[in-house]
Amino acid sequence: MDTSSSKPLDTVYANSAREMRALQSQIQQLEDTVLTIVERRTPPTSAEIRELQDFDLISQTLGGLSIFFDKLREQVGTEDCTDITRATESVTLQKLRDRLREKQELFEL
Q1: For a surface tag, which of 22, 104, 106, 108 has the fewest beta carbons within 10 Å of its beta carbon?
Q2: 74-to-10, 18, 86 alpha-carbon distances in Å
Q3: 105 belongs to a structural domain
Q4: Sign of the torsion angle spanned by Cα atoms 35, 36, 41, 47
Q5: Per-residue pLDDT, 80
Q6: What are the tens digits of pLDDT across the range 50-93?
Q7: How many Cα atoms within 13 Å fall on the side-chain side of residue 65?
Q8: Could you give the 3-state DSSP secondary structure of residue 25?
Q9: Dist. CA 18–CA 6, nearest whole Å
């Protein structure tokens, strides 16, 4: 395994948890926007339409995370650390891939 891309499991878990919390926050914002539109009973404004486009980003991010976890699963039992570069190779969202490859050892939970 390439040790330059090897990460301790606690770092992998912290990065993954951070991504999921960000998705949770985005979903909450979208839920609020949809509720506002429904309660108001008028077509969405252009700003609201732009906000609703985040559904696509959330979907792509979840897809990227599932690929990442599938690749991590393939490494289970081999070592204490995982090869983050290999696990993120198939993640198509560049920003997500970069965040998952974060160099810091630990992130605030």
Answers
A1: 108
A2: 18, 22, 10
A3: no
A4: negative
A5: 64
A6: 999 999 999 999 999 999 988 888 877 756 677 888 888 888 88
A7: 18
A8: helix
A9: 19
Domain membership flag for residue 65: yes
pTM over 0.70: no
Domain housing 52: 3-100
Distance between first and last Cα of the chain: 28
Question: Is residue 107 in some structural domain?
Answer: no
What does 73-100 look like in DSSP terms, one character per residue?
A: HHTTTT-SEEEHHHHHTT---HHHHHHH
Domains in the chain, number: 1
pLDDT band at residue 109 using 50, 70 and 90 as cut-offs: very low
**109 within a domain of the structure (yes/no):** no
- CB–CB of 64/92 below 8 Å? yes
pLDDT tens-place string over residues 5-20: 788 888 888 999 999 9
